[in-house]
Design brief:
Number of strands: 9
CATH superfamily: Class I glutamine amidotransferase (GATase) domain
CATH architecture: 3-Layer(aba) Sandwich
Largest sheet: 9 strands, mixed
Radius of gyration: 16 Å
Oligomer: single chain
Shape: globular
Structural class: alpha/beta
Strand order of the largest sheet: 2-1-3-4-9-8-7-5-6
Length: 230
């Protein structure tokens, strides 16, 4: 039973923090601890947690020589799923989650960067977290790797170049290749590192922010409702 337990937000890089997730969790009354793996902070036992969110980062899942905590995090995620803890993985977090569930992660066809959209699959349109948005979601992309959908998981979204953009494993474990958590502060921090010619245009980002607040809110509500009913 996870009702009333604190959540952990696993952060991998200074400029990839909770963003919009912080007010969404706060509005839901969730106590959340940010754990900075890149700063050497340790992850608590999954069975003590009410939920987990794993954020993005510029490193890849195979960069364990430079970032040995990546392997630690994957084992932790596998334990979390086994302990029936709700999990949301974002970008690198989704790749880490896919790998923890036994799926392959590899370099994609070309980097996908900037404000864009994904199309929901039939299963995605029926999904309680993504489905209420309709057939397409406005999202923010910044990735060059991709993952296979883990065995037993359901593919929820795709883009033209990346057919595996989101998956659900069980009822409350989600991997999203794209970003929905980017707020103003994060967008400003990212701007100097964007490739030449790529701009996070304000109007498009506002659309993504609106989607993000709704989707993140539904995931948190799903996790809390599931815990209350357990």
């Amino acid at each position: 039973m996870t009702a009333g337990r604190p959540w952990v937000v696993a952060q991998h890089a200074p400029d990839e923090g909770p963003g919009l997730l912080a007010p969404v969790l706060g509005h839901a009354g969730v106590t959340a601890q940010v754990v900075r793996l890149d700063a050497g902070e340790e992850l608590p036992a999954p069975r003590t947690l009410g939920g987990i969110v794993v954020l993005g980062g510029a490193m890849g899942v195979h960069d364990t020589a430079d970032h040995p905590w990546l392997a630690v995090e994957r084992r932790w995620l596998a334990d979390a799923v086994a302990d029936d803890v709700p999990v949301l993985g974002v970008c690198l977090g989704a790749q880490q989650l896919a790998a923890a569930l036994g799926a392959s992660v590899r370099t994609g066809p070309a980097p996908e960067i900037g404000v864009g959209e994904v199309q929901l699959t039939d299963a995605g349109r029926d999904d309680p977290v993504l489905g209420p948005e309709g057939e397409r979601l406005a999202v923010l992309h910044w990735h060059g790797d991709t993952f296979d959908v883990p065995d037993g998981a359901t593919r929820l979204a795709a883009s033209d170049d990346y057919p595996n953009q989101a998956f659900r494993y069980g009822t409350a474990v989600y991997g999203l290749q794209f970003h929905l958590e980017v707020d103003d502060a994060m967008a400003r921090a990212w701007a100097p590192d964007l490739p030449a010619g790529v701009v996070l245009e304000a109007g498009g980002r506002r659309r993504v922010e609106a989607v993000g607040r709704r989707v993140l809110g539904r995931f948190v509500s799903l996790a809390l409702g599931r815990a209350a009913g357990s």
